[in-house]
Amino acid sequence: MADIDPSAFGARAESMIHILGSVSAEPKRLVRRFLSPEHRRAADIVASWMQEEGLSVSEDALGTVRGHWPGSGAMRLLIGSHIDTVVDAGMFDGPFGVIAGILAAGHFARAKNRLPFGIDVLAFGDEEGSRFPATLASSTACAGIFNMASLDLADRDGETLAQAIAHYGKSVADIPAAAYPRDQAAAYVEVHIEQGPVLEHRNQPLGVVTSIAGQTYLNVELFGEAGHAGTVPMLLRRDALAGAAEIILLAEKLARDSKGDVVATVGHLDITAKASNVVAGHVVLIADIRSGSESARAQFVERFKTEMRAIAERRYLGLLVTTTREVPTTPCDPRLQEGFAAALGGQPVKLASGAGHDGTAMAKLCPIGMLFVRCRGGISHNPAEYASPADMGLAVAALIRFIEGFKP
Ligand code: GLV
Ligand code: MN
Ligand code: MN
Q1: Is-contact 386 88, C-beta < 8 A?
Q2: What is the pLDDT of residue 3?
Q3: Whose CA is nearest to atom 3 of ligand 1?
Q4: SS3 label, residue 12
Q5: Which end of the chain is more exposed for a tag (fewer CB within 10 A), N or C?
Q6: Predicted pLDDT at 134
Q7: Are 2 and 111 in contact (CB under 8 A)?
Q8: Which one of 381, 382, 385 would you pick to mutate in the ligand 1 pocket, going by the greatest count of ligand atoms within 8 A of its CB?
Q9: Which atom of ligand 1 approaches the CA of 94 most closely?
Q10: Cα-atom radius of gyration of the chain, to the nearest Å?
Q11: Does the pLDDT at position 262 exceed 80?
């Protein structure tokens, strides 16, 4: 059996991160959307790495690249993350988990070491939801819970998910076949950068995840009356953008009042007819609300909706609120947490994930577990995102030790 050399794994991971990080729709920033030409290029690179490591490669109807190392039994350990990105992304969010899986599975495949279970490394393509107003299409398909209604959702250019799947050379008729049989999926595990500051503060390279926070996405549309910025008197305006501004501050206030239970963000705002000399008649914003507590999130959403209605009434605005995403808080399996703790050799830092992950979908199929890697300054969804080669090497080594100790 080959030795585990964390620094060699770290150096390889870093070079692979840079290769994937150069695959972008834009020259000056990293943008890789689901089922785009860049997704295709990244998927081909991932597939070639899997082949080099001795894994057999396939791709499902949602473009998930799967690298398989067979075991002596029918059960499989699934290891994955995503290769799509947010707009102006860092290089580590998603790709490092795929790379860690490839290097760890390759460790066994190169040594022709058959385990009692097979290993499938999964490179999902839709975790960030940066193309369609939905997310986790690829992992929900693997978990057998893909929402067929989402095929009609359109991207900003009007292309539907069904059309994008066809353009990518796949068929929606094959989506059901992407689902793993329940009696084959032993567990799903994912290595991911922390995207927060806890491990850095605790001076630890790695930590074991206890749960993934639940999320609600509200699409909020405000209908006012467009008008001339120079002529409509202030008291006669029905300014949809001014109403949106109040709603954004309301989200911030309610989240601050929750004393850490809930975080709420408005990071998307569309002014339909944007011009500096026009009172805005129609505005759309998306509120992203997250919490580790189901009840805290539900209470927040109820109060937020009530107070949004009051703002709209006071300003004589129409209001349409649609829930576009509802993901429950997902606990990580205690046995898998113990497996990662044993792989880290003692009493590791345990922490909850505020960020969403493919594991929330995969948890509908099988137990899930996650390992977090320290990232500099806790910065993520930002080109400054960084994890050191040393920490990445330790993560790959820990994943290998986890696999060695895993019992389906
Ligand atoms: C994905 O990164 C998310 O948490 O939104
Ligand atoms: Mn991610
Ligand atoms: Mn992300």
Answers
A1: no
A2: 81
A3: 356
A4: helix
A5: N
A6: 83
A7: yes
A8: 381
A9: 2
A10: 22
A11: yes
Ligand 1: which of 96, 127, 136, 324 to mutate, judged by most atoms within 8 Å of the beta carbon? 127
Report the alpha-carbon distance of residue 265 to residue 287 in Å, rounded.
6
| Angle value at C-alpha 368, between 363 and 372, nearest 5 degrees | 125
Q: Nearest residue CA, atom 5 of ligand 1?
A: 356
Residue 1 has pLDDT above 70, yes or no: no
Closest ligand 1 atom, residue 356 Cα? 4
Q: How many other CB atoms sit within 10 Å of the CB of residue 395? A: 31
What single-letter DSSP state applies at residue 332? P
Buried b (16+ CB within 10 A) or exposed e, 203-219: ebbbbbbbbbbbbbbbb
Host H or E run for residue 209? strand 206-212
Rounded average pLDDT over 100-109 = 98
Contact 355, 197 (CB under 8 A): no
Contact 119, 106 (CB under 8 A): no
For the record, the structure tokens of 273 come out as: 């007819």
What confidence category does residue 346 fall into, taking pLDDT thresholds of 50, 70 and 90?
Answer: confident
What's the 3-state SS for 152-221? HCECCCCCEHHHHHHHCCCCHHHCHHHCCCCCCEEEEEEEEECCCCHHHHHCCCEEEEEEECEEEEEEEE
Atom of ligand 1 nearest to the CA of 127: 1
Helices (H), 111-239: 137-143, 161-167, 198-202
Quote the CA–CA distance of 240 and 376 in Å, as a whole number. Answer: 39
One-letter amino acid at 58 equals S
Q: What is the pLDDT of residues 165-184, one digit of tens each?
A: 999 999 999 999 999 999 99
Q: Rounded to whole angstroms, what are the CA distances from 135 to 94, 140, 288, 357?
A: 14, 9, 13, 10
Ligand nearest to the CA of 85: 3
Q: Which atom number of ligand 1 is nearest to the Cα of residue 128? A: 1
Q: Measure the CA–CA gap between 138 and 146, rounded to whole angstroms.
A: 8
Residues 348-367: what's their mean pLDDT? 96
CA of 128 to the centre of ligand 3 (A): 5
Span 132-156, pLDDT tens digits: 988 899 999 999 999 999 999 999 9
Amino acid at 290: R
Say how many Å lie between the CA of residue 188 and the centre of ligand 1. 18
Closest by Cα among 22, 24, 116, 129 to 77: 116
